[in-house]
Structures are given as structure tokens and as C-alpha cells.
From TrEMBL:
It comes from Parageobacillus thermoglucosidasius. PROSITE patterns: UPF0067. Keywords: Kinase, Transferase. One of its GO terms (molecular function) is kinase activity. This is Histidine kinase. InterPro entries: FRMsr_CS, GAF, GAF-like_dom_sf, Phosphatase_reg/MetRdx. SUPFAM superfamilies: GAF domain-like (SSF55781).
Length: 159
């Protein structure tokens, strides 16, 4: 059974709690899409100062929109294009303090000012990315990166 937990600790403690909630949400569920849907809803509830959170899934050499929370988004992003495609191609998390300064940024929502993208890698293959946008510049930092990578690891482990 899933229960909402109050997030009133340190940022690190709160991230650990949301990862525990994710484990409870996906335990015993075999549908990857359902798990991604609940994961995006959980992060949308947990994270402050965000305007979009969701997943893009790999199909051939591009990312295709998956479960998300927020305004309608770009449907297909080629590997190597924009923040999501670059993170997927390089297999590394990218934090962008100001999206307007990122070469080739793909603006799906004009309100977005900063972004973090965490690749999901299974057996050496990029299966998708977690993408989070904020209407605030410099919203994401190394703490977000560390715990969002752990969050993604929990999801990837279900495959």
C-alpha cells in the first residue's frame, strides 16, 4: 500500500524518502509504462519549482515522448539534439542552469529556464531519459543529480 510521506527533512533525507516511495509504488508491478507514469507523478508532487517532468524512451536513434506531467511536449528528439538527445548520446546526466545558453536547446515550453536530464542505461544501452524542466534559472544542482540518478536506477532495475 502506498502512503504519502511528509517531506520535512533535509533535501537529502527528502530525496531518500521519495526513492522509498518509488520503490513502494513499483513493487510487484511489471508494466514499465505504468511505473514511469507513477514515477513522473511522484516527482511532480515532490519537486518544487518545476514545470515539466517526464520520460523519453529510446526508439532506434531517437527519443520518443513517454509518461510525463506538464504541458504537451516535443514528441521526438534525435540522439545528439537538444539537452535530452545530448544526455542520451553521451550517457551522462546534464544540468543546464540556463537553457537559453545551451547550444541547440529545443524549446518545448517557453517558460522553461533550467533543466536536468538523467539517462536511463540498461546493459550499456540507453533506454530513455528522465527530463525535468524548471521556470527558474539555476534550479538544479549536484544534490539533485545524485538523487535523481538513484531514482532512475530504481526504475531501470525493474527491467
Amino acid at each position: 500500500m502506498f502512503h504519502t510521506i511528509a517531506y520535512n527533512g533535509t533535501r537529502e533525507e527528502n530525496y531518500e524518502l521519495v526513492i522509498q516511495q518509488l520503490r513502494a509504488l513499483i513493487e510487484g508491478e511489471s508494466s514499465f509504462i505504468a511505473n514511469l507514469a507513477n514515477a513522473s507523478a511522484l516527482l511532480n508532487q515532490f519537486l518544487e519549482q518545476i514545470n515539466w517532468v517526464g520520460f523519453y524512451l529510446t526508439e532506434n536513434d531517437e527519443l520518443v515522448l513517454g509518461p510525463f506531467q506538464g504541458l504537451p511536449a516535443c514528441v521526438r528528439i534525435p540522439f545528439g539534439k537538444g539537452v535530452c538527445g545530448t544526455a542520451a548520446e553521451n550517457r551522462k546526466t546534464i544540468i543546464v542552469p540556463d537553457v537559453h545558453l545551451f547550444p541547440g536547446h529545443i524549446a518545448c515550453d517557453a517558460a522553461s529556464q533550467s533543466e536536468i536530464v538523467v539517462p536511463m542505461v540498461k546493459d550499456g544501452n540507453v533506454i530513455g531519459v528522465l527530463d525535468i524542466d524548471s521556470p527558474v534559472k539555476n534550479r538544479f544542482d549536484e544534490t539533485d543529480q545524485k538523487y535523481l540518478e538513484k531514482f532512475v536506477d530504481v526504475i531501470v532495475a525493474t527491467l
